Amino acid sequence: MIRTYTMRLKPTKRQQVKLNDLLEHLCVLYNSALEHRKRSWEQLGKPVMYYDQQRALTDFRGKSLEVFSFPLTIQRDPLRRIDRAFKAFFRRVKAGEKPGYPRFKTKTSYNSFNVAERFSVNGSCLKIARLGNFRFKTKCKVKGSFKTINIARRGNRWIANLVCDIGEAPAKRPVSNAVGIDLGVTTLATLSDGTEIANPRWIKREEGRLAEAQRVLARKTKGSKNQAKAKERVRRVYQRIVGSRNAYTTTVAKKLIGQYDLIAHEKLNIKAMAQYGYLGKSIMDAAWGKLIWRLNCEAEKAGKWVIPVNPRNTTKACSGCGELVPKTLSQRTHCCPSCGLVLGRDHNAAVNILRLGESLVERQKICLEGIAN
Ligand SMILES: [Zn+2]
Q1: What's the total number of domains in the chain?
Q2: Do 108 and 183 belong to one domain?
Q3: 3-class SS of residue 203
Q4: 349 lies in which domain range?
Q5: How far from 189 is each of 9, 265, 345, 360, 361, CA to CA, in Å?
Q6: Is residue 121 located within the same domain as residue 217?
Q7: Cα of 351 to ligand 1 centre, how many Å?
Q8: How far is CA 205 from each of CA 209, 211, 240, 280, rounded to the nearest angstrom?
Q9: CB 160 within 8 A of CB 119
Q10: Residue 170 placed within a domain
């Protein structure tokens, strides 16, 4: 089971300068690696592979003392990144999509790097070979075997994401109580027992603040110091939204997983959601995605089930008799003309989702038993 610990690094002034220098250097490497691939293809018709670039980097290090001063293991990161970008590009071309060609980065858009080897964590100190020891802040104790660490710059803060393997996940538990959840716009979610999980008020409040900060930013002269300040303000508001959203969805997910053995939810369809045209759409979309993601994390830890179901007809179908009852977006109650059932619109959908989820688990279990026999 993979777990990611997020912690805030506390680099000293000197370390901050060092990290900023490193990022700038990695950005240059990234852009030259991209240029190398592009030119080689355009002028010679030859593709360049990751190992070609790794060799070129080693040569380059021998020629320049400045390049040599940065750790090689970290310098390989932008090369891997370019390699992944190209692989994804060609995969999408093959699949008949229209992907964008990998783009050059600017000093401000290149904000993170991965360290895959030669680092360790000791108490509240992160040690990266040839880069230094960084103090960090975290609430929980880090355990498991370390895989990689990602260091990211967020404005003037530094965040580390430490990926650890914490051993086998617990076996899935038998289901004794299950729930279906319907994700909504007016409430965050409605459960199949009729409970509503409210949208926290901060969404509305922060939306207003975000709009205001963006208005201020739009009035500033491009490239000016004031624009940089306004940008930082917009970023802060965003960060606060993300922070409170994460805290809220974590609480909701933990509570649900503590209460139920199986949680069925509708499979998220981002394209369909965009059609809502709802003002705080992006905020809501992210909250749904985050909640589902959190539910999956917590379920894996506790050996419980989180099942995505096909959302087709879950709103229309009557949970009492199965009759399809069409509704407009504004119709908030489900009234069935054939069996007379009257239920909240989202409540009815949640019951349908629960039923679909249960049947999926049943089928999966039969499959597993079939393999065992
Ligand atoms: Zn009915």
Answers
A1: 2
A2: no
A3: helix
A4: 178-372
A5: 35, 10, 12, 21, 22
A6: no
A7: 13
A8: 7, 10, 11, 11
A9: no
A10: no
What the block records as the tokens of 319 is 């949970």
* The pLDDT value given to residue 104: 96
What tens digit of pLDDT does each residue of 174-202 get? Answer: 888 899 999 887 788 999 999 999 888 77
How far is the centre of ligand 1, averaged over its atoms, from the C-alpha of 337 (Å)? 7
In a domain, 172, yes or no: no
With tokens 């963006």, the residue in question is 214
Cβ atoms of residues 292 and 181 within 8 Å: no
Listed residues 110, 132, 165: the one ending a domain:
165
Nearest-10 crossing angle of helices 13-39, 72-94: 40
Residue 110 CA to ligand 1 centre (angstroms): 55
Q: Give residue 228 CA to ligand 1 midpoint distance, Å.
A: 58
171 occurs within a structural domain: no
Question: pLDDT by residue for the chain (373 residues), tens digit each?
Answer: 888 888 999 999 999 999 999 999 999 999 999 999 999 999 998 889 999 999 999 999 999 888 899 999 999 999 999 999 999 999 999 999 888 999 999 998 999 999 998 999 888 899 999 899 999 987 778 888 999 999 999 888 899 999 999 888 888 888 888 999 998 877 889 999 999 998 887 777 888 888 899 999 999 999 899 998 998 889 888 888 888 888 999 999 999 999 999 999 988 765 555 555 544 455 566 678 889 999 999 999 899 999 999 988 898 999 999 899 998 878 889 999 999 999 999 999 999 999 999 888 887 765 555 555 4
Are residue 13 and residue 80 in the same domain, yes or no? yes
Please tell me whether residues 226 and 130 are part of one structural domain: no
What's the CA-to-centroid distance between 292 and ligand 1, angstroms? Answer: 29
**What is the distance in A from the centroid of ligand 1 to the CA of 325?**
8
Measure 271 CA to ligand 1 centroid, in angstroms: 30
Residues 258, 235 share a domain: yes
Q: Report if residue 29 sits inside a domain.
A: yes
